[in-house]
Design brief:
Length: 121
């Protein structure tokens, strides 16, 4: 049973869909914010595609020195947070969830099934 919602978005570095930025806001079940919004650049440890950079303006230089997705998850408790909150995102089923799984699996991190609301549907 979830204790609230995670309004989530991410950006990817390339067509392999490795995450280069994560942003989210947690709320309780009534929609009241829990904590401050999170926006974190992520070093995907891969090349950036021009098309992706044109969309979000994130470059390899901007993520230099930023944590990898594995380090971000470790330092922030992100995986545990996902277990407690329902992830809400536009196109969550076709995009965000898949990008998250791909990025984590690149570091051998297995993510449990999560509760999702897709605002695109």
């Amino acid at each position: 049973m979830t204790i609230g919602y995670m309004f989530y978005d991410d950006e990817t570095a390339n067509s392999a869909q490795r995450i280069c930025q994560i942003g989210y806001q947690l709320t309780d079940l009534e929609g009241r914010p829990v904590g401050e919004p999170v926006s974190q650049l992520i070093d995907p440890e891969c090349e950036f595609d021009r098309m992706n950079m044109r969309i979000h303006h994130i470059t390899s230089e901007k993520v230099e020195g930023m944590p990898t997705i594995a380090k971000f998850c470790e330092s922030s408790g992100f995986i545990d947070i996902l277990a407690d909150y329902t992830l809400v995102a536009h196109n969550a089923k076709q995009a965000d969830r898949r990008y998250l799984y791909k990025s984590l699996s690149a570091y051998g991190i297995e993510m449990l099934a999560i509760s999702i609301v897709d605002t695109r549907e």
